[in-house]
Amino acid sequence: MADCIFCKIASKEIPSKVVYEDDCMMAFHDIEPQAPTHVVVIPKEHIASLDEISKEHKNLLGHILLCIKDIAKALDLKEGYRIVSNCGALGGQTVGHIHFHLLGGRQLQWPPG
Ligand code: AMP
Ligand code: ZN
Questions:
Q1: CA torsion, points 65, 67, 73, 78, in degrees to nearest 10?
Q2: Which residue among 18, 39, 54, 61 is least enclosed by CB atoms within 10 Å?
Q3: Is residue 113 situated within a structural domain?
Q4: What distances in angstroms separate CA 24 from CA 15, 35, 81, 99, one per listed residue?
Q5: Is the CB–ligand 1 distance for residue 86 below 6 Å?
C-alpha cells in the first residue's frame, strides 16, 4: 500500500524504534505514547483493520498474540498490560493498517473513553 504509514515502517522507509521483528510482523514504540510502555504491533502484510481479517489470517494473528506475550515479558510488564485494536472511525482507528497497541507501566482505567 503506497500511502500506508505502517507499510512504510514495515519496509523501513520510515524509521521507528523497533522492539521486535520477524518475517511477518513488527513491534515498535508509539510516537505518541499513552502509557510508560506503548508499543504498536503490526503484521507486515497490509490488512486495513480487524474488520478485514479472514480465516487465512488465523496463523498470522495467533503468531502475533503469542509474540505480544513475549514482548510484554521482555519489556518487564509483569504486573499487567493491555492490548487494544481500534477498529474503524467510531473505534478510534487513525491508521488504516491493522495494529495492536500494547500498553503498560501504569494503572490503566476502565472503561476506555
Ligand atoms: P490508532 O489511532 O489506533 O489507529 O493508532 C495509531 C497509532 O500509531 C497512534 O497511537 C499513533 O501515535 C501511532 N503512530 C502514528 N505514526 C507513527 C509513527 N511514525 N511511529 C510510531 N507510531 C506512530
Ligand atoms: Zn499498510
A1: 0
A2: 54
A3: no
A4: 18, 26, 23, 13
A5: yes
Mutate to test the pocket of ligand 1, among 32, 41, 86 (most ligand atoms within 8 A of CB): 32
Q: Quick: pLDDT tens for 80-111.
A: 999 999 999 999 999 999 999 999 999 999 99
Which residue type, as a one-letter code, is found at position 109? Q
Of ligand 1's listed atoms, the one at least distance from the Cα of 38 is 10
| pTM exceeding 0.90 | yes
| 55 domain-assigned | yes
C-beta of 40 in contact with ligand 1 (< 6 A): yes
